[in-house]
Amino acid sequence: NMIPIPEHCPIGPTNPYGRTKATNELIITDHVEAQRNNAKKEGKSGDQWNAALLRYFNPAGSHPSGIMGEDPQGVPYNLLPLLAQVAVGKREKLLVFGDDYSSKDGTAIRDYIHILDLAAGHLVALNYLRDQHPGVRAWNLGTGKGSTVFEMIKSFSHAVGRDLPYEVVGRRAGDVLDLTANPKRANEELKWKAKLTLEDACEDLWRWTKNNPQGYRQQPPAEFLEKLKAGKK
């Protein structure tokens, strides 16, 4: 019940994917601590052994250029790539898993972070490890603001320019009401903060999708590449 979720919140994965992430954190922590302890036994500091546990929430968006983006194979697990498939006709409609949650519109809440903000978070975390030698340190990378499924549908539909169809079905096993980050630690220690908006993420993803409906299996439209080159001059 700790929402927004801080780093010290007890870890309790509700599905196999979450369990793999929790297990990896334990493995990384055990390894770094063992190496540090071994170094101390040899009279060394062990400061070279450090690890960042970056707990990022829901990556969203694409590169603003429209030439790099997510290209999921098969059925995407995340909401925005599913909406993108609906927008280009690969999928008839979006399935909304449950509208009976205790949120303002009944749908689940997630914290969506633009991939460029996420990339910046990786860089500052690496710099922190190099400069501060903290051992193992966890940071949440999120906006601190949750959005419901219906809000995401509305936002992405606005970027596309038309309402996208959806159907409400039963809840999905393992889903929870709210996964919103508390990014205070990253804000203060890493001097990092998410800068891009949900609207930026939707617009960037749609730019990538409409110019590359088959992902990396096709060349972007020639006129789009020409505009991109002209913009760089």
Automatic annotation (TrEMBL):
Question: Which portions of the sequence form the region Disordered?
Answer: 212-233
Similarity section: In the C-terminal section; belongs to the aldose epimerase family. In the N-terminal section; belongs to the NAD(P)-dependent epimerase/dehydratase family.
Q: What does this protein do?
A: Mutarotase converts alpha-aldose to the beta-anomer. It is active on D-glucose, L-arabinose, D-xylose, D-galactose, maltose and lactose.
Q: Would you name any one GO CC term?
A: cytosol
Q: Which UniProt keywords apply?
A: Isomerase, NAD
Q: What is the lineage of its organism?
A: Eukaryota, Fungi, Dikarya, Ascomycota, Pezizomycotina
* Domain NAD(P)-binding, first and last residues per copy: 3-204
One GO MF term on file is: UDP-glucose 4-epimerase activity
Compositional bias per record (Basic and acidic residues), positions renumbered to this chain: 224-233
* Name the record gives this protein: Bifunctional protein GAL10
Pathway participation: Carbohydrate metabolism; hexose metabolism; Carbohydrate metabolism; galactose metabolism
Name the cofactor(s). NAD(+)
What InterPro entries does the database record attribute to this sequence?
NAD(P)-bd_dom, NAD(P)-bd_dom_sf
Example of a GO biological process term: monosaccharide metabolic process
Taxonomy, superkingdom? Eukaryota
The keyword Glycoprotein belongs to this UniProt entry's keyword annotation: no
Catalyses which reaction(s): UDP-alpha-D-glucose = UDP-alpha-D-galactose
Keyword NAD in the entry? The reply is yes
